[in-house]
């Protein structure tokens, strides 16, 4: 399917041990920022758990002792200080993008989010025109908090709308009302945010074609310049998965998801949006999410927070998941990283193909081996790749190809 809701995995992968001080190989440090550098900040707090969510998040009752919202910003700043020591005399050129995700980052006081951003700027420096995004649930922001965030330097906000249909929101266990997301989007515009995104989920059991059409219409009317739309994926261990196993709800249909994707492309295209990644549409090139493009094009980023992943110079690592363990390691002066891996050239090539094929900018044919180029030719002949782009040496998905993106990727890799 063209898009899936991506979550931090319930179980972190295995890897090699990380030195207590978090030190990196010299070659990785020398390469930092060669393709750009971003910072991701994970805020693991939620007011309640949505039924479909498998992200590394915690409600107040799940936190236990040793971690709290009140002290969380201090822990993040402690990891940032450690990161500065690790990179030492080989810091990134400057920070191109910052993305604060979750969880619900805006459950933290706006002043704490401002303090974290200021810490990043003081540590490495924000590039001129840096993109600074925070995610938010619609009910977790007010006109006043949005103005505080904008004044602190946040330029972009991504709001979790998911649907405009009350019944769909109920199945997903969302707490906001059907109209709150678009109202929050307008408030963000009024507060001066340069870019506003609304997230949609399609294919929820019980969602009708009319429900999704109404959601798309509300998104367009809200005046946002970016839309993300993901097919619902049912994660093991979630409340939604349990309800489906008990037969209370039907499992999502691939055919319905494909119909919803086509509806999104039609409605958003008619409203002036263009796809730039399989699950993302923007009104202009300037409205595309630069932080996500950084991920998709193999750049470097440092992930701050419990469960956050980082990538620097071909080394990838991930932090301990629970906020209590995270805070405890930092209080001891130790790295919160649980394990890491060094990507081989073959692994880097595989990830490069998997991610860049999903971009409207395409993948250069020249990066494929002989078998991959043969697969690309078959995909072009099957109408899955744009023939004009192919003639220019690029692998670019057609609309039908976007529906079958995973199959195309498999044909391009050994």
TrEMBL record:
Keyword Nucleus: no
Protein location: Cytoplasm
GO cellular component: cytoplasm
A single GO BP: porphyrin-containing compound biosynthetic process
Protein family (similarity comment): Belongs to the anaerobic coproporphyrinogen-III oxidase family. HemW subfamily.
Task performed by this protein: Probably acts as a heme chaperone, transferring heme to an unknown acceptor. Binds one molecule of heme per monomer, possibly covalently. Binds 1 [4Fe-4S] cluster. The cluster is coordinated with 3 cysteines and an exchangeable S-adenosyl-L-methionine.
Stated name of the protein: Heme chaperone HemW
Organism expressing this protein natively: Micromonospora sediminicola
């Amino acid at each position: 399917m063209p898009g899936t809701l991506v979550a931090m995995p319930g179980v972190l992968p295995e890897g090699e041990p990380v030195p207590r001080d978090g030190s990196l190989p010299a070659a990785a440090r020398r390469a930092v920022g060669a393709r750009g550098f971003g910072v991701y900040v994970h805020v693991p707090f939620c007011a309640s758990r949505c039924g479909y969510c498998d992200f590394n998040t915690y409600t107040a009752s799940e936190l236990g002792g040793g971690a709290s919202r009140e002290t969380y910003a201090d822990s993040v700043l402690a990891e940032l200080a450690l990161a500065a020591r690790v990179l030492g005399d080989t810091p990134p050129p400057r920070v191109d993008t910052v993305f604060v995700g979750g969880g619900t980052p805006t459950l933290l006081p706006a002043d704490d989010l401002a303090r974290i951003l200021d810490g990043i700027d003081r540590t490495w420096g924000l590039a001129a025109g840096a993109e600074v995004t925070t995610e938010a649930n619609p009910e977790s922001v007010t006109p006043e908090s949005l103005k505080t965030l904008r004044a602190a330097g946040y330029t972009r906000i991504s709001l979790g709308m998911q649907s405009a249909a009350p019944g769909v929101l109920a199945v997903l266990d969302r707490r906001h009302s059907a109209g709150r997301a678009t109202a929050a989007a307008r408030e963000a515009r009024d507060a001066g945010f340069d870019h506003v995104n609304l997230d949609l989920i399609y294919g929820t059991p019980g969602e009708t074609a009319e429900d999704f059409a109404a959601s798309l219409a509300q998104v367009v009317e809200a005046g946002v310049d970016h839309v993300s739309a993901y097919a619902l994926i049912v994660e093991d261990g979630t409340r939604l998965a349990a309800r489906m196993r008990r037969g209370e709800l039907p499992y999502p249909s691939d055919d319905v998801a494909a119909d919803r994707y086509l509806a999104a492309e039609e409605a958003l295209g008619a409203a002036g949006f263009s796809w730039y990644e399989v699950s993302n549409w923007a009104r202009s090139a300037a409205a595309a999410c630069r932080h996500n493009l950084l991920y998709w094009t193999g750049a470097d980023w440092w992930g701050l927070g419990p469960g956050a992943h980082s990538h620097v110079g071909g080394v990838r690592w991930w932090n301990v998941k629970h906020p209590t363990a995270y805070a405890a390691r930092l209080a001891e002066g130790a790295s919160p990283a649980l394990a890491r891996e060094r990507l081989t050239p073959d692994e880097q090539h595989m990830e490069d193909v998997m991610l860049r094929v999903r971009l409207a900018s395409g993948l250069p044919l020249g990066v494929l081996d002989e078998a991959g180029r043969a697969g690309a030719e078959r995909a072009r002949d099957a109408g899955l790749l744009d023939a004009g782009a192919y003639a220019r040496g690029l692998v670019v998905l057609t609309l039908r190809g976007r529906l079958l993106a995973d199959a195309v990727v498999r044909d391009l890799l050994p």
